[in-house]
Each structure stands twice: as C-alpha cells, then as structure tokens.
Amino acid sequence: MSAATAAAPAALDAPRSRRRRLVRNLDPLLLGSTAVLVAFGLLMVYSTTRSMPHPLAYTRSQMLHLMIGVGVGIVLVAADYRTLAAGWRWLYVANLLMLAAVLVIGRSSLGAQRWIPLGPLGQFQPSELAKLVLVITLAKHLADRPGPYRSVADLVPFLAHVAVPMVLIFRQPDLGTALVYGAIFAGMLFAGGARRRDLAALGAAACLVSPVLWHVLKEYQRRRLLVFLDPSLDPRGAGYGIIQSKIAVGSGLLWGKGLFAGTQNLLQFVPEHHTDFIFSVIGEELGFLGGLALLAVFLVWLWRGVRTAAVARDRFGALAAVGIVSMVAFHVFVNVGMTVGIMPITGIPLPFISYGGSALMTMLWATALLLNIGMRRQRILF
Fold first, then answer.
1. Confidence band of 171 (pLDDT split at 50, 70, 90)
2. Is residue 356 part of a domain?
C-alpha cells in the first residue's frame, strides 16, 4: 500500500475525530439546566394563560418559537463561533438598522413601540435580539483593543459602541432593555480589564445624568418609578401591579397553593402575569420552595456560563460568555426583584420562562453561543 493510499483514511478520520471531540465537550449541565428552564417555562405559560380566551394559542406560539430557536441554535452550535467575530461590523450596522426600523414601522402597544409586525407569523421584538448582537460586537471590539485601559478616556470608544443602540432603544421607549445594555457593558468592561475606579466614575456620571433623563421619560415610566418608592401613591393605577404581585407571592407561603390553583392567577388580579409578572404566579402556586428551586436552576446555568468564560480559548469567546452571563443574571435579578417589590417595574422578562417568542429565541441562541464557546475550549479548569 502506498503512502498516499494509507494517508487517505487518516485524513478522513481527522474531521470525524474532531467532531466527536466537540460533541464530548458539550456542557451537559448547561444543556440540562436550559432544558429544565424551557420545559418549566412552557408549563407556566400554560398555567398563566389557561383562564384566558384561546388559552392554548399562547402555548402553541411559545412552542413554535421554541422549535425555531432550537433549529437556529443547532446551526449556531455547529458553526465555529469565531465566524461571528469576523463579521462583527456588519452585525453592528444591521443591528442599528433593525432598531431604527422599529421607530418607523414598529407596532405600538401599552405606550411603547417595540414590535415589527410579521403578518401571519406574528410579531418580532428587535430589542431582544439586539442584546445578543451587542454582546457579540462588543466582545470583538474589546478583544481587538485589549488595553491596558489607563483612564476613562480609553473606555470612550466602547461607551460609544453601546450608547448608539441604547439611544435607539430608549426612544421606543424601552427603559428595561436600556438598563440591560448597561449591565452587559459594565460586566464586559470589568472582565475586559477596565479599572474599578474608571467603572465607578462612569457609574457616577450616569447618576448625575439621571435627573435630566427624568424629563425624557414617558409619564407612565415616571409613575412606575414613583410607586416603587411608595405603591400607595397610586394603588389602583401604577402601583396596582406591585401590590397584587406581592399579595400573590406572599399568599403562596412555603409550599404554594398548588399548580394551576393560584387564585390571583386564575382571577387575573396580577397584570401581565404571563410575561413580566410570571414569577408572581410561580410564587403563588409553588410557594417559596418552588421559587427557590427555580432560582437554583438559574444559578446552575449562570455557573456554567462563568465556567465557559474561564475555559474559552480566546479573549473574544471569554468576553462573549461574560456578556451573556451578565445579561441573564441582570434579567433574573430585576424580574424577580420587581415581583417582590425590591426593584421598579421595567418590563424585563424572566429568561426562558416569560411568554414571548423573541425573548425565548434570543435566550436559546445565547445558550447555543455559550455551548459553542465551551465546545471549542483548549483547556479544562473545572
């Protein structure tokens, strides 16, 4: 047998061996915790909408978006994540165009213009996908300019990177997503090597600007912030949601009233109980222990995300993983805090759980990117 003939099978086996190694590197805990969260989310969407007209329509819609999200997610896992870095500028521009399009052709609901109608396919919320695009593009920007960052001036290019899409989102208006951008920015800058004093300076500057932003906010947004400090200011208006949510969570006690047995849920006392306030229903029906178990699953998910950042083979992958973890952690903290009255109402959904196709698909694709980064690691730390 000639050397060329002998080398042919070896050349064919190399890609197969590499694919097997990538599959072995899939993080089972990240994959498993995601599956648990998604399955539980479908269950709670059904629970929160079963007393509405056409209740199965919500669950079917969520399942349809789940299938689309998983399908695209498989493609994202299979392709090398570094191909996203190569086209980051195009992604950034497309993101801005998508957010600008919302202001022109977007559909308004509840005082906000955030959705692009897609005819029989429903509607799409670009600000959800924009979070993941920001993570990818900012990670590449930071990877290309590794520092050292000796002053706040060195952080200005990254601040501008985030500020442009944030302004477009703020115009919708979508204060909650704008705050998520801030959390992603802070987390990625910290992981990227920015000095704590410079981050503190940026935070202080944001606090100084906040009184000016007060006059830019819509009236309903100002009322939400005021009733956060004192819900009794408007108990039948802006404070109604917080009051009913706290009643629902408190009435669940330790074990809850039972799945599908929440009265605040069935009688629809809690507004937006299938989206923003879905954790209120979880607290009422499954009690303190049920809510604690859900937070434990989120903690596992976040731990594996941090682990992915630690084992990433390059700076881009590590920073992208940190951005995704920052995004999900902020979502969970603000949403849960909102339902128990320790955070103002901002309209931030609970990842994987709240009803909303755009949000669910974005979280699935973020998980796929984490899995992709972890699969292509060079070393194993823990």
1. confident
2. yes
